[in-house]
Amino acid sequence: MAASAHHPPLAAPQPPMGLRERKKLKTRQAIRRATYRLIAEQGYDATTIDQIAAAAEVSPSTVFRYFPTKEDIVLTDEYDPVMAQVLRARPADEPPLESLRIILTGAVAEILRTEPQEMYQRTKLMAEVPALRARMAETMAETSQLLARPIADRAGRDPDDLEVRVFTASVMGALREAMLYWAERDQKDDLVALVNRTLDTLKGGLTF
């Protein structure tokens, strides 16, 4: 799905990457691609770290250096630091929920545009594999903490402030539910529209 005026691509000025950083990124991407390919061929449970390492042409210790668990290979991407940076660049007077709406819908649209098959496979696995669903809750909490700091700075609060924690956790929880809902219904809906619908529910509450 290409980004539109309603779903701008997630972008932020990035400093040029050095050779070391480019090599690290290339290795992470190779490990992820190998993992998705093996899972598609033989299933999640049957896929081992040793197999992933061999397919990615790295050592098992290298896989663990980049990804502490097999679940992390499936769930981790490169977008969290960029989202935090873009969030800081949003207008100071913009409502926090609208800032996060722009960032999250932009990120989803960008992933669907550039890595659609990974997105389809990742969300399907999230819905089907209990270990992935459990780890997803942990990674969403980590993302929530990352986004809490720019939100707190804008509001003049501490990142550990209860209201800040509740707000960012609620948004990330809503995103998780939208992705699971999408996956459980065979990914037929417009995921960006589902994320918008989910955030509308947070904004307006449940009505009857």
Topology record:
Blueprint: H1 19-42, H2 49-56, H3 60-66, H4 70-75, H5 80-89, H6 96-114, H7 116-128, H8 130-155, H9 162-184, H10 191-204
Going by CATH, the homologous superfamily of the largest domain would be Tetracycline Repressor, domain 2
Q: What is the average of the pLDDT values?
A: 89
Describe the sheet with the most strands. none
Measured on Cα atoms, how large is the radius of gyration?
Answer: 18 Å
| Shape assignment | globular
Distance between the termini: 32 Å
Number of domains: 2
Which regions are unreliable across 5 or more consecutive residues at pLDDT < 50? 1-9, 11-15
Under CATH, the topology of the largest domain can be stated as Tetracycline Repressor, domain 2
Derived from helix and strand composition plus strand pairing, the structural class reads mainly alpha
User: What is the H/E order?
Assistant: HHHHHHHHHH
- Helix share bin: over 70%
